Amino acid sequence: MSISTAELRAKTALGPKRTGPLVGLARMLGPDYRLGYLFILPTVVLVLALVAYPFCYAIYLSMTRKYVGVPPVFVGFDNYVKITFDGFFQRAVVNSFIFTFGSVGVKLVLGMLMALVLTSGIRFRSFWTGVLLIPWVAPTVVSALNFLWIFDYSLGVLNYLLVKVFHLLPQGVGWLSEPGTAMASVIGVNIWRGFPFFGISFLAGLRAIPAELYEAAAVDGAGTLQRFRHVTLPGIKNILIIVMLLSTIWTFNDFQIVYILTRGGPGGATQVLPVFTYEIAFGAQRLGEAIAVALYMLPALAAVIIVLARYMRKGRAR
Amino acid sequence: MDSRLKDLAERLDAGLIARREFLRKAALVTGGTAVGLKALESMARAQSPTKLRVWLFKSYVTAGNDILAKQVEGWAAERKVQVDMDWATFGDREQKFVAAIEAGNPPDMAEMNYQGPARYKPALRDVTKLAKDIAGARGGLLPYADRVVNIAGQYFGVARQAFPGGLFVRKDLLDAKGVKLPKRYDPDVVDMAKKCQDASKDLWGFGQTLNRCDDGNGFMQAILWDYGGSVWDKDGKPALATTFKKENLEALQFAVDTIQKHKIQPPGVMGWNDVSNNEAYMAGKLVSTNNGASLYYAMVAKKHPLAEKTQVILTPGGPAGSFVAAGAYNWGIFQKSKHTELCEDLIRWVEDEKRFDEYMQASIGQAGPVYKSRADKPYWKSDPNFQGMVQNILRSVWPGYPGPFSAAAVEVQAQYILCDMAGRVVTAGLSPEAALKEAHGRVEEIYKVRRS
Questions:
Q1: Is the per-residue pLDDT at B92 higher than 60?
Q2: Contacts of A282 in chain B (CB under 8 A)
Q3: Residue (of B321, B317, B312, B287) closest to B184 by Cα position
Q4: Which of B171, B165, B215 is nearest to B192 (CA)?
Q5: Å from B144 to nearest chain A CA?
Q6: Are B112 and B348 in contact (CB under 8 A)?
Q7: Which of A172, A313, B338, B429 is 20 to 30 A from B420, comparing alpha carbons?
Q8: What are the helix and strand counts (H, E) for chain B?
Q9: Is residue B402 part of a domain?
Q10: Contact: B423, A268; criterion CB under 8 Å
């Protein structure tokens, strides 16, 4: 005698089969998925409160005309349109890219040199590592104020050395008073401050490369440059990308060095976006416009980050 | 343990009271104690002193800062008020105000610079009665000071002081060359500088940056007025490349010429900030420089050898006269304060003439007069260098002159538009006409935004 499924269910008291989205979720996330929500709730709340809300609010404010002490007035994309055609903003964008890529490129080379020297058989390696880390460890404000004095035309030590001690120049250079030298000076200070981060990161990467690889390469007849190209560089590729990524973001957002040394001068020659944002926010006190300036380059930076992150993931997959 | 509870426990142990009676009485004792403690706590809270948050301005004149702090502490002790004092400096003043106002947590009162009443008006209390009372008892406000605290008939700040300045001149060098004190920039300052400077010894005739800083702003603004020009016309409309184009061009040309043509300025001057000229002057690298009284204070306080060789004179002028801008520092009371009367009382306390005199004496010329009677004090005749400073204050005008003092005028200063204008000619090679036009465009934009 045959028996239908419904009858079987009735007899075995199984009841009707459960279906629907909840069952699907349970099957996908596991039977205790509700507890999982509970566990991630604090993190979600924190991220929403400390990251998502301020970010969304900033986007909203960038679309308003907002002065200190008065409520914002929504103006749509007016602020973005206005700054797009602002000559000083355009110059700040160009300066920001010169400042960032000029700094990051040199920091990369110097950092690599630092790491290679420190992994060689140099004596007092720990001492030199400590010394080379000083610029990174010292507070930026203190370093920048020192450089302000170093670069001073009349009283600075740099001109004193170049003119009076080493007689390399007939007269001093106005390091912070000419557009070219001012930009070179702020880039120089950023490089001085930032290259130890590259160096120390590369150092960690180099130490993780097995010595056998170098030995094998040497046995195969690879010279120093070939070993560097085919063993060292692939070994630290991921670190290199991460360090460049971080440094690009930090340098692009560096405010202190430029503000203390030149305030964007002379004549706006070293004006970069963070200083420009600061001036619009606290000088002009146009808060909506200042946030628009700050957010303007976000898509470009985000694109760089996404491209680099994808590249890294691909590298790891290989 | 409470003695009553202990007694109850002993009586329970001795079998004198039943367990139920022990529980009832113990509950009464405990509850009564709790209620009593709560009452005591609320009484203590009611008696705790009122807290007042006060922001003071920290100037370079440290002796003056100390005296002001002591006076505020003295008032707090007298009135049994707890004062939470904080300092704002030249560098962080505006940031602090913006952040506090936007966070809805400003202090009860603060010492603001001349921009404060115009910028923070929406968050400030109307202090017209207090301002008029104090000014009335001191012969009235000087016109430049009245302009910055009085916004359309309402006072949003009680004026306190202005930082005077002048042209600091190395009298010894001028005497050695037989050069007279200059009255006009062109030709007097130029001639003096050329005769007294010695580039081979890194000694320069005139140290006046046009870079983005307060010193650069002050000079650029004044030089336009000196040549009969201005950023604004009488109605407060932009006039940089329109109404006063010819005068402004001449002024800009002169400013640039001091560096490029006359070569009387140190080669690094376009990289200077507000303290660079002070340092260069005190290092003996300059024959003359425009600066506030704080430079004189620094030299006198440190017994610097150049203090005696320096003469502070009236800021030189141009074909249209000699102009300087002065801004009155002032006390503002914020709307959010729940202690308006205390704030007003504190303002009256520190502005009391005896206390202000004490502050002024310690400030060595820095506490310039904002009230007519304070300008007549014998103190200003006690040092020959004070005469130039006080006279500069008395003839000073306001940002926005000859038009009204306005938020737009403040913003032009805050964005260093005039410094950029000069900087674009000196360092970027723009023609004065092109730089003037570019700057005018920026001023127009500010005017439109602020007007709307």
A1: yes
A2: 94-95, 98
A3: B317
A4: B171
A5: 22
A6: no
A7: A172
A8: 21, 10
A9: no
A10: yes
Here the ipTM equals 0.79
CA distance A74 to chain B (A): 14
CB contact under 8 A, B446 and A284: yes
- As a whole number of angstroms, the distance between CA B288 and CA B307 comes to 13
Residue B346 phi, psi dihedral angles, 5° rounding: -65, -40
For residue B294, count other CB atoms closer than 10 A to its CB: 22
Least confident of A72-76, A93-97, A175-179, A308-312: A308-312
The total number of structural domains that make up chain B: 3
Return the DSSP state at B313.
E
User: What does the mean pLDDT of chain A come to?
Assistant: 88
For residue A224, the one-letter residue type is T
Q: Do A265 and B211 touch (CB under 8 A)?
A: yes
Size of interface A-B (CB pairs under 8 A): 131
User: How would you label B163-199 residue by residue, b for 16+ Cβ within 10 Å and e otherwise?
Assistant: bbbbbbbbbebbeeeebebbeebbebbbbbbbebbee
Q: What is the Cα–Cα distance from A232 to A228, expressed in whole angstroms?
A: 5
Q: Give the H/E segment covering residue B260.
A: helix B245-260
- For B285, which of A154, A177, A282 is closest by C-beta distance? A154
The total number of structural domains in chain A stands at 2
Which chain A residues are Cβ-neighbours of B423 within 8 angstroms? 265-269
Q: At what angle do helices B340-351 and B128-136 cross, to 10 degrees?
A: 20
Whether residue A246 has pLDDT greater than 70? yes
Q: Are residues B321 and B344 in the same domain?
A: no
Q: Is A178 on the interface with B (CB under 8 A)?
A: yes
**Do B429 and B385 reside in the same domain of the chain?**
no
Separation CA A100–CA B19 (nearest Å): 82
Compare CB distances from A285 to B98, B269, B270 and report the shortest one's residue: B98
- Whole-number pLDDT of residue B359: 96
Per the domain annotation, does B206 fall within a domain? yes
Q: What percent of chain A lies above the pLDDT cut of 90?
A: 62
C-alpha distance from B211 to closest chain A C-alpha (Å):
6
Same domain, A282 and A211: yes
Tokens of A62: 């960038």
Contacts of A69 in chain B (CB under 8 A): 101-102, 120-123
Six-digit token string for B271:
């990289």
Task: Identify whether residues B283 and B359 lie together within a single domain.
Answer: no
Most confident range, picked from A215-224, B239-248, B359-368: B239-248
Q: Would you say B82 and B371 are in contact if contact means Cβ atoms under 8 Å apart?
A: no
Closest residue to B266, CB basis, from A153, A263, A286:
A153
DSSP state of A266: S
Range of the domain at B170: 166-325+415-451
Q: Do both A51 and A86 map to the same domain?
A: no
Residue B373's CATH number: 3.40.190.10
Q: Are both B196 and B77 inside the same structural domain?
A: no
Are residue A212 and residue A83 in the same domain, yes or no?
yes
Q: Give yes or no: residues B30 and B115 share one domain.
A: no
For residue B125, give the H/E element and its range.
none
Chain A residues closer than 8 Å to B123 by CB:
68-69
| Cα(B81)–Cα(A153) distance, integer angstroms | 51
- Inform me whether the C-beta atom of residue A281 falls under 8 Å from chain B C-beta atoms: yes
Test A182 with B119 for CB contact under 8 angstroms.
no
Count Cβ neighbours within 10 Å for each residue of A64-76 and write b for 16 or more, e otherwise.
bbbbbbeeeeebe
One domain, residues A191 and A287 = yes
pTM value?
0.81
Query: Which among B268, B283, B423 is the nearest to A267, CB-wise?
Result: B423
In this complex, do A176 and B271 lie within 8 Å of one another by their Cβ atoms?
yes
Most A-contacting residue of B102, B415, B427 (CB-CB within 10 A), to test interface:
B427
Residue spans of alpha helices (H) in B262-395:
276-282, 294-301, 306-309, 340-351, 353-363, 372-375, 384-394
